């Protein structure tokens, strides 16, 4: 077998080749792109037996995505994506000086896949469709997070010079709010808005109770408030107008990307099983599928899937002291989606609600109870995927009902 450590950067890769005894066979710095991959294949070919299979080449690298990784997988190599923290801890096992270099990291990665690959997880063989879902679902979620940041900036600006706008508009990303703030981004112009203009914006946004809301908005905008000097107010108004334009653009792109997420997710083979789970709609299911992937052999047991999700607790024990804690290191996107699923499942699944209520009755806090419910739902999802069957309420919670009885 041949072991390759690949320390990647934006424009180059430092690689080291080792044999099974740990002897260094070659070391090189390769450019990113086709030329670099070709040189890596040639370097491997120089030291690999003619009758050896491609999967006898084991590669350690600190990422699981990108065209370089895809090229390694396509070549048939066994690729391990290793967390940089693991590499740092492994490096500290062999020296205490704190020295670090790209070539040294390549050596460490080669050593890791040679001696500890049984403790590592190979890059999953997800389908192209599942990878596409992951890309668009992440892009959609990132747009939502970025919009929220801009909304908070807008709220901060309004709070400092136009606080009555916050009383008039309860949703700063709503189309009617953005339309009216674009027309009147300061207190003076907002007070001049007619009821007809306000009502027209509400109708275009398809709001209910237009007359009542028009009255409430008009009253709030015309209320007295402390004011900023004219020059300062004009500067704030320009800021508000700019933020409104950005948020409006975000709304349009989020809506377009949402359709893309639904389209990609609908073509995956496990879409029906994911949509059958309590608390999962198309967008949330796409996020969960994208982060879990669809490689049937990636998670050997439900525990492996829960550990990857970050919903299962960790135990720290030393002597007589023993504590059980939530996982600090986790996939933020996946855990966020699973937390939302658990919260939504409280309204759609009697079994999930009963499980949550039982936890709360034991004086477990809300967030901890939701996290434990999410952990339980991950196990149910794993069972459904392994057996290829949609979610069934009675089957999923039969164990809990039996325990209660």
Automatic annotation (TrEMBL):
Residues 4-163 form the Transposase IS110-like N-terminal domain. It comes from Georgenia deserti. It comes from the Bacteria. This is IS110 family transposase. PANTHER family: PUTATIVE TRANSPOSASE FOR IS117-RELATED, TRANSPOSASE FOR INSERTION SEQUENCE ELEMENT IS1111A. Residues 275-356 form the Transposase IS116/IS110/IS902 C-terminal domain. The lineage of its organism: Bacteria, Bacillati, Actinomycetota, Actinomycetes, Micrococcales.
């Amino acid at each position: 077998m041949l072991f390759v450590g690949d320390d990647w950067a934006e424009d180059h890769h430092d690689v080291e080749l080792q044999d099974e005894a740990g002897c260094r066979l070659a070391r090189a710095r390769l450019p990113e792109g086709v030329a670099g991959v070709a040189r890596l294949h040639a370097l491997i070919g120089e030291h690999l037996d003619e009758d050896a299979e491609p999967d006898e080449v084991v590669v350690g690298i600190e990422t699981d995505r990108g065209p370089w990784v895809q090229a390694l997988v396509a070549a048939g190599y066994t690729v391990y994506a290793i967390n940089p923290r693991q590499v740092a801890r492994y490096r500290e096992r062999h020296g205490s000086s704190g020295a670090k270099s790209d070539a040294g990291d390549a050596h460490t990665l080669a050593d890791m896949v040679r001696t500890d690959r049984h403790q590592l997880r190979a890059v999953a063989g997800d389908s192209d469709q599942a990878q596409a879902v992951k890309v668009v679902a992440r892009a959609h979620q990132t747009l939502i997070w970025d919009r929220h940041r801009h909304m908070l900036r807008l709220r901060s600006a309004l709070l400092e010079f136009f606080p009555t706008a916050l009383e008039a508009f309860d949703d700063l990303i709503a189309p009617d709010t953005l339309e009216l703030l674009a027309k009147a981004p300061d207190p003076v112009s907002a007070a001049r808005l007619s009821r007809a203009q306000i009502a027209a914006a509400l109708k275009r946004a398809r709001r209910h109770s237009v007359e009542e809301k028009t009255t409430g908005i008009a009253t709030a905008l015309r209320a007295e408030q402390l004011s900023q000097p004219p020059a300062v107010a004009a500067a704030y108004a320009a800021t508000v107008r700019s933020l409104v334009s950005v948020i409006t653009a975000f709304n349009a792109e989020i809506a377009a990307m949402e359709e893309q997420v639904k389209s990609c997710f609908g073509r995956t083979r496990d879409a029906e099983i994911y949509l059958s789970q309590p608390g999962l709609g198309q967008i949330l299911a796409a996020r969960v599928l994208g982060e879990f992937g669809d490689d049937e052999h990636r998670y050997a047991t439900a525990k492996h899937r829960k550990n990857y999700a970050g919903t299962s607790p960790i135990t720290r024990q030393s002597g007589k002291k023993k504590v059980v804690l939530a996982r600090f290191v986790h996939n933020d996107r996946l855990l966020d989606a699973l937390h939302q699923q658990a919260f939504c499942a409280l309204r759609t699944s009697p079994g999930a609600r009963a499980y949550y209520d039982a936890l709360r009755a034991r004086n477990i806090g809300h967030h901890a109870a939701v996290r434990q419910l999410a952990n339980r739902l991950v196990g149910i999802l794993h069972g459904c995927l392994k057996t290829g069957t949609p979610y069934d309420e009675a089957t999923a919670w039969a164990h809990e009902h039996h325990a209660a009885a």
